[in-house]
Amino acid sequence: MDTIRCRIKENSTIARIAAWRMKSPRMAIVFGHVIHLYGVSREQFLAHTGWVRHEVCHVKQYRENGFWGFLWQYVLDWMRVGYHANRFEKAARLAESNVQELDGVEIT
Asked: Cα torsion for 75, 107, 17, 83, to the nearest 10°?
């Protein structure tokens, strides 16, 4: 199995916009292999294993579907069924309790 490499970008403008849109004081959002954070430090994020697993699941979804393919499918699902019923979010919520989700993952 190949190592999955993720990068964290703190105080991200993209994550700030997403936080505003979702009316949340803190946010993590993934684009490709980069986890964008807003309102939370790298250390605080990494201390929440379930949250890390959730975002790493999205990194894996990008790998499986391709960058544009994932974005397209995610947006279509969101428009069709909403955020919480989105199949990619459902899978990521399941990943939060999967103890093997971070196997083979390197976060820099």
From this structure: 30
Pairing outcome for strands 4-9 and 34-38: parallel
pLDDT in tens, 34-54: 999 999 999 999 999 999 999
Three-class secondary structure of residue 4 per DSSP? strand
CB atoms within 10 A of CB 17: 14
Which one-letter amino acid corresponds to residue 34? V
The total number of residues written for the chain in this structure: 108
Q: What is the spatial distance between Cα 20 and Cα 70, in angstroms, rounded to a whole number?
A: 23
**Total-model pTM:** 0.94
Which of the 8 DSSP states describes residue 25?
Answer: S
Beta bridge partners, 36, equal 9, 29
